[in-house]
């Protein structure tokens, strides 16, 4: 097995008295699309800032490409591209001019600008002023900037955040292309679980500064029960409370139905009996494969109320 492209050991980080990260140990396989999942405020961006030497963990160690980051940061960061939150773009310049500014800073051949414009599909809009770009185009321009040095590792922090559906699809296709056709390892943070489900080969779940799961995406799906019970009932709130009293996690609750992760179909009869005993009318009970969001909610024990 090849050495992880990113390996962190015992990362802790405090904002004054608040402990933002608690013993973060990550192993990101080379060649993977690694989904770093967690709700807002879970510690994703703090971890990324440590990986990019913007924050420093004490104690803790970061190794990238098998080398200690603090001792080899110039060499390492020269092979890493990053898109963190909203990219910095000069709105009065064209997309091509923006890339020229970055190109001079990182000292790569001028021909590289056209290459990255082609990769991110901005050739036709390269000479338009960035102030006329959509949010999706701005994100792709930021990604083009990160690709100028032809990095082996891309670190992307919430790259689809705020995009419309077409922008999300464009970014998803780009990420898959960069991994499969250009050989980039991609560390991708997001709270949009459905997007990670479509992209990632490996995942880590972080919540309240702690890693709750790390491994292959299909391993996460196996760790979850794989089954979700959908209950249509006359009094949803009352039914939800009965289920919580039975220590079930509610993955979704709306005005018509409740979704509950279960371990086996044998539990359906138990749940039905409890709801009927609670004087509720059950209109329908059906099972479906549990999606990543349900598994995530089950692991973190967060109730969607």
UniProtKB/TrEMBL annotation:
Residues spanning the signal sequence: none
Gene3D superfamilies: P-loop containing nucleotide triphosphate hydrolases
Domain of life (superkingdom): Bacteria
Residue span(s) of domain ABC transporter: 6-233
Keyword Signal: no
Entry keyword set: ATP-binding, Nucleotide-binding, Transport
Keyword flag Disulfide bond: no
Recorded GO MF terms: ATP binding; ATP hydrolysis activity
Family: Belongs to the ABC transporter superfamily.
Name listed for the protein in its UniProt record: Bacitracin ABC transporter ATP-binding protein
Protein's organism: Roseivirga misakiensis
Classification lineage: Bacteria, Pseudomonadati, Bacteroidota, Cytophagia, Cytophagales
């Amino acid at each position: 097995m090849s050495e992880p492209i990113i390996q962190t050991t015992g990362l802790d980080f405090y904002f004054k008295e608040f402990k933002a990260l608690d013993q973060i140990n990550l192993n990101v396989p080379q060649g993977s699309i690694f989904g770093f999942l967690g709700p807002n405020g879970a510690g994703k961006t703090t971890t990324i800032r440590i990986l990019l030497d913007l924050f420093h963990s004490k104690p803790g160690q970061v190794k990238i490409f098998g080398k200690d980051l603090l001792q080899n940061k110039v060499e390492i960061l020269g092979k890493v591209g990053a898109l963190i939150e909203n990219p910095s773009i000069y709105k009065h310049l064209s997309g091509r001019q923006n890339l020229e500014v970055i190109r001079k800073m990182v000292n790569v051949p001028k021909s590289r600008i056209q290459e990255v414009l082609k990769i991110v599909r901005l050739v036709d809009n390269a000479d338009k002023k960035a102030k006329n770009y959509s949010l999706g185009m701005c994100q792709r321009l930021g990604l083009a900037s990160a690709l100028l040095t032809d990095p082996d590792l891309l670190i992307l922090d919430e790259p689809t955040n705020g995009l419309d559906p077409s922008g999300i699809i464009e970014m998803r296709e780009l990420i898959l292309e960069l991994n499969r056709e250009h050989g980039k390892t991609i560390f991708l943070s997001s709270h949009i679980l459905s997007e990670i489900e479509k992209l990632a080969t490996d995942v880590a779940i972080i919540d309240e500064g702690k890693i709750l799961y790390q491994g292959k995406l299909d391993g996460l799906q196996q760790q979850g029960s794989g089954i979700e019970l959908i209950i249509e009932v006359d009094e949803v709130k009352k039914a939800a409370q009965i289920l919580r009293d039975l220590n079930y996690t509610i993955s979704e609750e709306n005005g018509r139905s409740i979704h509950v992760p279960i371990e086996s179909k044998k539990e359906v009869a138990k749940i039905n009996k409890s709801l009927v005993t609670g004087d509720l009318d059950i209109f329908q009970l059906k099972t479906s494969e549990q999606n990543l969001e349900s598994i995530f909610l089950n692991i973190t024990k967060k109730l969607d109320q």
